[in-house]
Amino acid sequence: MEGLERIIREHRFFAGLDERITSLVSGCAKNVRFEAQQYLYHHGDAADELYLLRHGRVALEIAAPGRGALMFQTVEEGDVVGASWLVPPYRWQYDARALELTRAIAIDAQCLRGKCESDHDLGYEMMKRVVQILVERLQATQLQMLDVYGH
Fold first, then answer.
1. Nearest C-alpha neighbor of 80 from the set 50, 57, 108
2. What is the DSSP string of 104-134?
3. How far apart are CA 30 and CA 68, in angstroms?
4. What is the pLDDT of residue 53?
5. Whole-angstrom Cα distance, residue 117 to residue 122?
6. Cβ distance 107 to 50 under 8 Å?
7. How many angstroms from the chain centroid is the CA of residue 63?
8. Residue 141: per-residue pLDDT
9. Is the dihedral of CA 41, 138, 12, 122 positive or negative?
10. CA 122 to CA 115: how far, in whole Å?
């Protein structure tokens, strides 16, 4: 477990947190691997994990009727995939697909939510970090829309 705990502690999503908190989080973590074109998750499925990307790139996609999947953002090493694990009803709001071999730390959402409920300091830190991800994704999507529509 020490290896996972070190990786979690060094990931930028957990930057500045004390070892007590990263130790709690690492108890919910495991290594995962996705081949190119493999989905991490699909829209509407249970949001049961948070992914800390260690290697590779992942496309975040939405389904557009009559047009298929539209990629709205690409995330890579050092990024986080999956914010829906913390927001009821805990369902993915888009698809996530590995563009190449991708390695990540998967943090079990139910385990982490339980720890957040028991330790409100941890819960507050997770909420602040997830909100930051949501704001960054919204800003990136807004810039992409401006580019697409030429405004």
1. 50
2. EEEEEHHHHHHHHHH-HHHHHHHHHHHHHHH
3. 32
4. 97
5. 8
6. yes
7. 19
8. 74
9. negative
10. 7
Q: Are 94 and 77 in contact (CB under 8 A)?
A: no
pLDDT, one tens digit per residue, over 16-59 is 888 999 999 999 999 999 999 999 999 999 999 999 999 999 99
Strand-strand pairing, 102-108 and 29-34: antiparallel
Q: Within 10 A of 112 (CB to CB), how many other CB atoms are there?
A: 22
Q: Encoding tokens for residue 62?
A: 């939405």
Q: Residue 90 is which amino acid? A: Y
Q: Which residue has the tokens 């190449």?
A: 100
Contact yes or no for 83/134 (Cβ under 8 A): yes
The rounded distance, in Å, linking the Cα atoms of 133 and 83 is 7
